[in-house]
Amino acid sequence: MPLEIVTVPCLSDNYAFLAHDAASGQTALIDAPESGPILAELDARGWTLSHVLLTHHHWDHVDGLAAILENHPAKVIGAAADAHRLPPLDQQVSEGDVVEIGGEPVQVMDVSGHTVGHVAYYMPESRAVFTADSLMALGCGRLFEGTAPQMWASLSKLAALPDDTLVCSGHEYTQANAQFAITVDPNNAALRQRITDIEATRAAGKPTVPSTLALEKATNPFLRATDPSIHAILGMENADPAAVFAEIRARKDRF
Ligand code: ZN
Ligand code: FE
What we know:
The chain is 35% helix and 24% strand. By secondary structure, it is of the alpha/beta class. The strands form three sheets. A six-stranded mixed β-sheet has the order 1-2-3-4-5-6, with helices on one face. Strands 7-8-9-10-13-14 form a six-stranded mixed β-sheet. The protein has a two-stranded antiparallel sheet with strand order 11-12. α1 (35-45) packs parallel to α3 (65-71). The longest helix is centred in the last third of the chain and has 15 residues, at 189-203. The radius of gyration is 18 Å and the shape is globular. It binds zinc ion and fe (iii) ion.
């Protein structure tokens, strides 16, 4: 049985996620932006946390943890590479490690770029990946610590997951990302359709996250650095995709 995944809006534009296994009762929280909405969601569902999976050390992904643990003394898991700047960890993980939630394997992927040490958690049986500030809906995280080639390698790894994988990312930045995306990919019909859908979703007050990997691969300019039509628009025909990615990221930073 796939895990039940619940999106929990936090702060002004963050998302945390709960992944619940009905059979065992185990529940994982992915990132802890603030305690209030997460505790309320757990309460409403009658769920008790067994695990917390942290993606990276930024305050808007960890600051709620201490208050959550007071009520839910769960096992806290995060990147070994970031153990010195994450809250205290019960288990340190690295690329290729596997943890289990309700008997389902959760694969740890190093997706450095936004920070060095950022990890994603992939649940192959539930067809979901928790990407926080690496791959985002129509975007990717800013390169605060890593290099463009590093982020390109991280995104390429994520892009290789099955198309029907649910992409559970960390922020509601999708409308702003869309305004930029159309400037580098103006002839993409799937992108135009997605922008129409995003506007309707946000007008209804609903989250645009999670998305699917198929949709991201078709419309997210940061995953389309291999596409000849984007190369042409950027005047980078036959350029290395990592260089095209770097150019797209630089343009987004100036946008
Ligand atoms: Zn961040
Ligand atoms: Fe963030």
